[in-house]
Amino acid sequence: MSSTRPTVSLDVARSDEAPVLANLLELYTHELSHVFGIEIGDDGRYGYPRLAQYFGEPGRFPFLIRVGGRLAGFALATVGSPASDDPLAMDVAEFFVLRRHRQSGVGGRAAVRLWNGFPGRTWTVRVSSGNTPALSFWNGAVAAYARDGFTESALPGIPHPWRVLTFRSRAASG
C-alpha cells in the first residue's frame, strides 16, 4: 500500500490574515531568540515591526504555507536583497515551518513553490551561521533546486556572520 504525501501549498497571505502571520512570527522569533539574543518585550511579545510593510508596500510578498489545507508556516519574500547589488534580486526575508512538519519535505516543497512563483529571477537566501539547522536545510534545498548551480558567500553579521546562497529560479515553462 502506498501512502500519498499531503499537498503543500504556498498561498499569498491576505491582509485579513496579517494577525495569523503575526502569531506565526512570534513562534519563529522565539526559535531564533537564542541565535540572535532577542529579548521579549514587556508585553510578552517579540513583535515584527516590518509586518505591515508586507501588506502595504510593493515588492513585498507574504505567504502562508499549508499542508493538506492546514497552516504549517510562512514565507516572506522581497524584491531587493541586502545581500545583492541587483535591485531586482529576490530575497527570502523570513521562512518558517512548524516543528511538526520539519524533516518531512514540507519546507523544501514550499521553497520550490516560492522560487517557481518568480521564474527566471535571481534569488538570495541569507542564513546566520549560528543557525546550524537552517544552514543544513537551505544548503540542501538550494542544491536540490538550482540546476545551474549556486554561489555561496559570507557577509559580516552580529552576533554571527551570514552565509548567502545566490541562484536563479527556473524559467517559466510553456
Just give the CATH class.
Alpha Beta
Structural class determined from secondary elements: alpha+beta
Q: Tell me the number of helical segments per DSSP (H or I, 4 or more residues long).
A: 4
Helix content: 25-40%
Across the major sheet, the strand order is 1-2-3-4-5-7-6
Secondary structure: number of strands: 7
What is the annotated CATH architecture? 3-Layer(aba) Sandwich
Q: Could you give a short account of the major beta sheet?
A: 7 strands, mixed
**Total domain units:** 1
**Using only CA atoms, what is the Rg?**
16 Å
Which residue ranges are poorly predicted, with pLDDT under 50 across at least 5 consecutive positions? none
Listing every helix as H and every strand as E from the N terminus to the C terminus, the arrangement reads: EHHEEEHEHEE
Q: Approximately how much beta-strand content do the residues carry?
A: 25-35%
Global mean pLDDT: 93
Coarse morphology = globular
User: Distance N terminus to C terminus?
Assistant: 35 Å
CATH homologous group name:
Gcn5-related N-acetyltransferase (GNAT)
Looking at the structure, the CATH topology is Aminopeptidase
Summarize the structure.
With 174 residues, the chain is an alpha+beta fold. It contains four helices and seven strands, in the order E-H-H-E-E-E-H-E-H-E-E. It has one domain (8-168): Aminopeptidase.
Can you characterise this structure?
The chain is of the alpha+beta class and 174 residues long. The chain has a single domain, classed as Gcn5-related N-acetyltransferase (GNAT) (Aminopeptidase, 3-Layer(aba) Sandwich). The protein contains 4 helices and 7 strands. The protein has helices spanning 18-36, 53-56, 106-116, 132-145; strands at 8-12, 60-67, 70-79, 90-97, 122-128, 151-155, 162-168. The protein has a 7-stranded mixed β-sheet, sandwiched between helices. A hairpin with a 6-residue loop joins strand 6 and strand 7 (162-168). Helix 3 packs across helix 4. The chain is globular.
